[in-house]
Amino acid sequence: MALQYMKSDLKSLKFGKDTQGGGSSGLPYIKPGLPEDSPAGEYLAGIARTSADFPLRGGTYSTIASTEDTIRISRFLNDFPKGAIFTSKQVGLQKSNPKIETGELGSRLNTQTYNLNANLLAQVFEQGTGTHINRAGFNTNELDDDKNKYAYIVKNKTTEQNRLVNLFNTKISGETDSNVASNKTALGIADSNEFLFQYVGGPDSNFGDGETIISRTTNTTKAPKGQIRLEKLIDTNNLLGFSNNKNIFNNLPSGSYSIENTEYQQGYGITAVDFIRPESASTSMPQINQFGNTMGYSALLAAKGDDMSVTTLNDFRQKTSSPQKRNYSDQLVNIATRVGIGNPGARTNTQRKGTNIVNYSGQDQVNMIPLYSEADDTDPFIGKPEARDLIKFAFEVINNDNPSETTRVHFRAFVTNFSDNHTANWNGQSYMGRGEKFYTYQGFDRQFSFQFKVVAQSKQEMLPLYQKLNYIVSSLYPNYSKQGFMRGNLHKLTVGEYFCRTPGIITSMNITVDDNYPWEIKYSEPETESKFPKSDLPNTKGYKGSDTFQNSNSDADMMELPQVLNVSVTFIPILNELPSLSEFTNTTKGGKHILISNRGIQENFIDRINLGFPKPELNIEPDTPVLTDRS
Known about the structure:
Strand content: 15-25%
Oligomer: single chain
Strand order of the largest sheet: 5-7-6-12-13-14-9-8
Helix content: 10-25%
Low-confidence stretches: 223-296, 303-312, 601-606, 608-631
């Protein structure tokens, strides 16, 4: 029956009969009366209206409200089956936490224990007070005690109980004594050498049922020759990989390990090229030692083990498909050497201490190209490996006094916001007695806009980058002839082969600096009072500075400038041939090079674009009926 036909003041409607079949859901869990009909309701409403916001948020009423909420949630938790399902789910979710080193009760971890809603109800009651009660734990204050937390427990374990030490002893050295076995179980370390961890519950389980297993890529149990139990070296500074003597310990702790430097080197058959180093560094030992002698991954895998009968270490990269299987030490494969982007992190110890010592392998080779002028018929990229990039990118400024010469400006092709706008201009004319306009073609406009980033990744790149940027910006300003006449400057732009040395004019160039970009602040580290004469500082003619300057950390040659810039450019191209409709025919090459330059290396690609293709023939089997009439 609709409410409009009910003869009721709506106050006589009772709770219940709100489920299918006339049953009662029992909701809401708390059924207060209306304030005007219930003294208790009126009392609570009055408190809610007048309660001050002190000393608790919500004042006195917040205590009443939190008590009411606690009763409401308690009734939900006791409402079968909804409450039981909710509780069971929370217990399972808590068991899905990973096994970590924390407080225990029997075989249970406090971080994997949900104490049947006790903590939940305590938090509901404390709501609004700023008190936070941990969801996990055997009781409400279990995880408030630091002694039950990971940091305290790990800090107070012995070396033999340490998880990393046990992983090394069980998965590398292959130790099997009783202490190791006991620690493995407590830490969840797997018995099988095919796995690292295996334990009940955890993230891989289904609400706590089942196991969590963390697998290994390769079974590396049985250490290579020269490695010993980790806890015997845990307090030394001579760990494998940090020695200056080809990755062997300089001074072994007292004890008999039967490890000799010469035996280690000969046993491995290691050469200097097996060690990580800057791409351009010599493979002689002095430079390798300066870099720290970290053994390369391939060299570690090639090492011989004590027991040659055990499974050899496998390089997982060789089991994968391309491109991971490639030889990244090849200069034509490694991206840092292939296009000269540099590796700023590949600095020797000496170069790290002296920031003015040039790290050639860390420099971006395109950024380091200075301004230079060449004859116009000389390509700015062919025969210039230092200018190689993923796509070609450069500006040229045509010499007004000698148009057969251009000044080349190379930047790394960090090109974004590419936009090429073509507009046809039509003049509309209205005639008496006609409602529509008649149009006559007047010409066209084309405007190309894009952005690129100027990024200095080393100290030495700042000078050539700002020199080039200053020059290309100045080309928007006038050039004066010897007679004093003002002239504009024509440009050539290369962006891949979309524009390839295409002549035109730059109408605008806007430089912005993002707030997140770093600046060169010209502060030496450590800061000193020493000053250098100009003759000691680097210059644009290739002089890197005096030895005294290079061995210092002085920033006397720097300026306070952004290290990253956004540059927006608007360019109007001047086509190399008369622009017109690019005709497609089946027999003639009548196309015009409008959209793509015809000066790229792949001219056959241009020819295919502009040459009409023959109509494809239908491949029809003999005696197949063909519909020739739509009727």
